[in-house]
Amino acid sequence: MSNLNKLDFAPLGTAGSGYHRWVRDVCQHLKAYGILDMILEPSQDVLTVEEAQALEANRAALEANKAKAIILMTRHMDDSLQYEYMNKKDPRRLWVSLKERFANVRNSLLLDLEVRWHSLSFCDFKSVLDYNSKALHIKSLMELCGKEIIDAMLIEKTLSTFPVSALMVTKNYRIDVTA
């Protein structure tokens, strides 16, 4: 079941660390193909006779769309996940199973991100660009997990981790900001 074709986005790994990005990518691709409704909750409305007949007439198209959705989803999954969910033939059921398994990854990811945020230090990077890139990356992941990092917190983090030799610069900046 190895993915021999070029992938459109990163596959979902067995640990689920990229689950939320994978969900976004799958939804966008299914929407682009016009088959997003294959994974959405079915409507609770009662079908009229005409709607039931139209649905039956379009059964082949519905099955083809389900197959397209399953192919897209499984193609962008790790090989071991593909084997584990091989018996899921309905895209909605696969979607729900993956959600039950990986949707709580945010909680464990947030703990790791908080540790990374607290250990982030300006002195550990060779350039301002490298530090800024890492800080913004952690900030965006924390926001994904529901914890907001405002600009003032980011600035304070940067200033508090400046080297001792730049202590006067940080004091001057803080005086200018508070004035």
Automatic annotation (TrEMBL):
Domain of life: Eukaryota
Pfam families: Retrotran_gag_2
PANTHER family: TRANSCRIPTION FACTOR INTERACTOR AND REGULATOR CCHC(ZN) FAMILY, ZINC FINGER, CCHC-TYPE-RELATED
Record-given protein name: Uncharacterized protein
Source organism (scientific name): Rosa chinensis
